[in-house]
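Posting this for the archive.
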Amino acid sequence: MPDNEIDPRVAYIQGRKKYHRPSGMLWSENSGTLQDGLYIPYGYEIGASPTNIETPELLNQFLLITDDNRSPLSFSEERIEKRERMINGRMRSYHIADKITLSTTWNLIPSRSHEDVPTFSTTTGISPNKSYTTDGGAGGADMLEWYNSHKGSFWVFLTYDNKSAFKSTAEPYDHLAQYNQVVEMFISDFSYSVEKRGTKFDYWNVSISLEEV
């Protein structure tokens, strides 16, 4: 690829976001890669148009999650360590790892993201189908479908102000609009309620907890 040519996956992620910053979470089958300072998953989004795709096994690789009516992303860290008191009375700790737990909820979000299969363009990330979520991200039933098909772990891409992830770059303060953390997690709890039924979609409340592998 020529030095001045933008990676098509970068162009897709940049075109897929409706606002200045991408959705707070993206769920992916793979850990992706760091390309041009931007974390991007391999393959194509669920619903991407299969036209002219030479590698169909790369279809349905990730799902953008809506930010509509989402509560804060609540993080808690578990420090895994072995503590042992020495003969002189001092405590010694053997650090093993730090693992995070992430929880959040959505209130009265559409059950589906679009009125029909979104068929996102593989180059621009734009779908001709009407969107029910304001940012085109996954609705309640879309998340439930992912949960039912992923009994094990998957990769969670996160975007929030975590500038320390880019402290080794030339401009560590210029990455706010990018995914800055990729964590392998599994869903430890998923619950939902159908609050209102409509003619084209229902309104759901969703609650989810994820734990780092």
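The chain has a mean pLDDT of 88. Residues 8-75+101-212 form one domain.
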